[in-house]
Amino acid sequence: MDYRPKYPTGLRLLSKSIDGVLFLGGTAIVSLVFVNAFLRGAAGFDLAWSLEITAFLLLWTTFLGCAAAIARGAHMRVTEIVDNLFSLVMRRRLVLFIDLVVAALLISLIYTGFSISSHTWAQKTTVLYWPVGLLYASMPVGMACTLLFHAFNIAIDLRTPPTDADLSSNTEAQI
């Protein structure tokens, strides 16, 4: 279920901003890798700085992509066993329990990512001399955005509980 239409305006704007960053980041990754591979093959050299920028973009697009997927309700669920063993009421309780476990995991990742980022901030990358902590800051920032979307998703689900079709893996809305 795509939660974005039910978000308040500010959260929808954040979601669209993340989508724009992901588009630009993905385009830059593909372009940089293609140009660097072409130069390595055709001209016999590569652009050392492009490897660092590509690594930076890959990390940031990965963690921001997690937030974008949560906003869309697009993370995969395997529910065949639960669908066949539990009633709708029990499935709703199980979904809430899993959502709370995911929230706890996200909080843990934010804390750990902040710790890693702050401990590596003084180190510099070899070519561009960017702080290494800036690379690792992608984890707490991406997970904070993910947690924000996830918390709103939980609130939306509590206000309007998901139907049997929403909880089932056999719906096309989850594909």
From TrEMBL:
It is found in: Cell inner membrane. Part of the tripartite ATP-independent periplasmic (TRAP) transport system. The keyword Cell inner membrane applies. It is a multi-pass membrane protein. The chain crosses the membrane at residues 21-41, 53-74, 94-116, 128-149. Its main location: membrane. Belongs to the TRAP transporter small permease family. This is TRAP transporter small permease protein.
